[in-house]
Amino acid sequence: MEKIIMYPGENKKDTVNYKDMQAQHITAVERNVLVLGSGGREHALAWKIAQSEKVSKVYIAPGNAGTASVGENISINIADFQAVKDVVLKYYINLVVVGPEQPLVDGIVDFFKSDADLKDVKIIGPDKAGAQLEGSKAFAKQFMEKYGIPTAKCFTVTSENLNDGLKYLETLSAPYVLKADGLAAGKGVLILDDLSEAKAELKEMLSGKFGSASAKVVIEQFLKGIEVSMFVLTDGENYIILPEAKDYKRIGDGDTGLNTGGMGAVSPVPFVTPEFVEKVENRIIKPTIQGLKNEKIDYKGFIFLGLMNCGGDPYVIEYNVRMGDPETEGVMTRIDSDFAELLDKCAQGKLNEARYQSSKETSVTVMLVSGGYPEAYKKGMKITGLENVCPCCVVAHAGTKFDGNDIVTSGGRVIAVTAHGKNIEEAREKAYHNAKQIVFEGKNYRHDIGLDLINYHA
Ligand code: AMP
Ligand code: GLY
Q1: Tens of pLDDT along 301-313?
Q2: Which fold has domain 9-127?
């Protein structure tokens, strides 16, 4: 059938019935993609998806000042699934990519599957049952135990068995790891050096330190090693391992200061050798996908493995059911294939038909953040110098918005600058040179992204 492109605003599409169009397989309809979210991850996803010749238009809801340059922002609250449905129908969206975890944990995929108008719309992300891998640490630990997936020893505590929890802490040695069971905006993990402090924190968590998210707490053995983020795209049967990345979580150089959402990333990671990947595949990825099948969980989306490399052996620290941020900003630049096609095949359960290739180059991503972040910070600072950034870099907006004629800061993490090189040194030099071109009051960033990986020896 001939390609018909209908952009929003063209009245003729209002007269066409969406279901009829789906039934007729009108090509253009299959080419409208909606990315949900508003951060650097979503900008990077939308940027990559928009490169596909098969995609007519990318919509981002709600998006930010950066996503507006690769598609059209739609201002809705994505926690309101009915509002998402209205957008899908209004703009003839055929593929939805869910960026953050919260809508997945809240059941957006189940909402699509059970809605007569949406059930044939392709969506990337697990349903509510699958999203528990991230939404409940206790669920994830039980799952790993059941399927023999390497992870830290643990004990789950509620107010009912607090005394057992306190006793379990005594069997461990410092540092002590306490994790809120539910989503706690990335703040629900405490690592404590002192036993009495750990006991006191355990009690506080159970009494609502992180609201209902810490009504259940997982106490974990501390794993010593170096962390890496690995990303799997699976249709529940087939899988592709996307480029891995190392995230830099602390605010200060040399891994000092408070934890943040992520201050930068490097991809690939030198210790992720073919041997290491083989261990991850055999010990973690295959049993995870088999486990999901056994649990009758239909999983079509990303699995983000937060891994600890303990002397060459991978252990799962956490599962996430979405891509990482800021890892995605670097990872997307290393994918050489048509990413929209990969996602489309994945959503159809045909990932085995997709072509996938990644670049051998190294990417370094530097996150520019607001002064004061991750504590209180000012918003609304005018951003200048974006035009001075080399087009060879990829600039992903994380917390920006239009304010009249200007682009201004609107979050703690503001802009991620990614550069490529034949090695970390080269990519670092380019990324930092260009990160310096972007100016806003209070701008802060880490100066040591990737330094620890230069000449890294396992
Ligand atoms: P999570 O939210 O589970 O990724 O935990 C946040 C951070 O805490 C991780 O990125 C690790 O740096 C650290 N962490 C979590 N669990 C452990 C563990 N069992 N051993 C050592 N560090 C951990
Ligand atoms: N960069 C870590 C995360 O996205 O959870």
Answers
A1: 999 999 999 999 9
A2: Rossmann fold (3.40.50)
